[in-house]
Specification:
Blueprint: H1 5-9, H2 16-42, E1 45-51, E2 55-57, E3 61-69, E4 73-78, E5 81-86, E6 93-99, E7 108-116, E8 122-125, E9 129-134
Parallel strand pairs: 2-9
Antiparallel strand pairs: 1-3, 3-6, 4-5, 4-7, 7-8, 7-9
Amino acid sequence: MSYTTQDFKDGNVLHAAQMVAIDNALLDHEKRLSEIETWLNSRPQIISVTPDKTNIIVGESVTFSVKQKNAASIRFIVDDAVNERIYDVNQETITFTKKFLTSGEKGLRTVAFQAVDSAGNLGAESTAIVITIQEGS
């Protein structure tokens, strides 16, 4: 393909220096995205939480299977407050059993988990799970 002088004057053709600058900017962008991806993958994360049941009677327990990544400990959160901390997390998947002694407001308790790395950095909370708790008869 050939270009005329007018093509260059009209800006329809990029000069070699402009092309190099664009290539460098793209490489810098790709490098930064890679750094961000590496950083995100190193953060403590809760990958999934699976309860064995979500409908119980006061006094019953729920066992949660929690899959995590990069955590040294996990926080167990009930109704938006840290209820307890599970220490020495050294497996990708752990099980955690909690007995619910009260039914909470309107018979609902909202639970979530949050991974914490060895430096104390918090990961995002897991998706909330609602446990329906009925008073015993």
